Amino acid sequence: MNNEEKILGLLEGIQKDLAEMKEDVAELKEDVAELKEDVAELKEDVAELKEDVAELKEANEETRSGVNALLEWAEECGNVIKFPLPKVK
User: Fold this and answer.
1) What is the pLDDT along the chain (89 residues), one digit of tens a residue?
2) CA geometry: angle 40, 32, 49, nearest 5 deg
3) Quick one: pLDDT at residue 46?
4) Are residues 78 and 85 in contact, defined by beta-carbon separation less than 8 angstroms?
């Protein structure tokens, strides 16, 4: 086996390795594309959750103000009818 044959053998090996690397890179690109889609879906889900949390905060504030108004009314009613209603703590 002379030097030319050795070099050709090495080049063939390098070409095979390069072809395998190209296949691997193609697979990685597909995986990255899938990951990007998943991330986009997750971002949409997080946006929806943020909206839901904002709505819950608003509803909580409305409920709190309603309960406070009822407590004030109960105290006033207790004073008006001279019947002490138990204090809510």
Assistant:
1) 799 999 999 999 999 999 999 999 999 999 999 999 999 999 999 999 999 999 999 999 999 999 999 998 888 877 666 666 677 76
2) 20
3) 98
4) yes
Report how far apart, in Å, the C-alpha atoms of 25 and of each of 12, 14, 52 are: 20, 16, 40
Instruction: Please answer whether residues 88 and 75 qualify as being in contact, where contact means their C-beta atoms are separated by less than 8 angstroms.
Output: no
Q: What is the largest CA-CA distance in the chain?
A: 117
The SS3 call for residue 89 is: coil
Q: In angstroms, rounded to a whole number, what is the distance separating the alpha carbons of residues 8 and 15? A: 10
Q: Which amino acid is at 68?
A: N
> For residues 79 and 87, is the Cβ–Cβ distance under 8 A?
no
Alpha carbon 38 to its chain centroid, in Å, reads 10
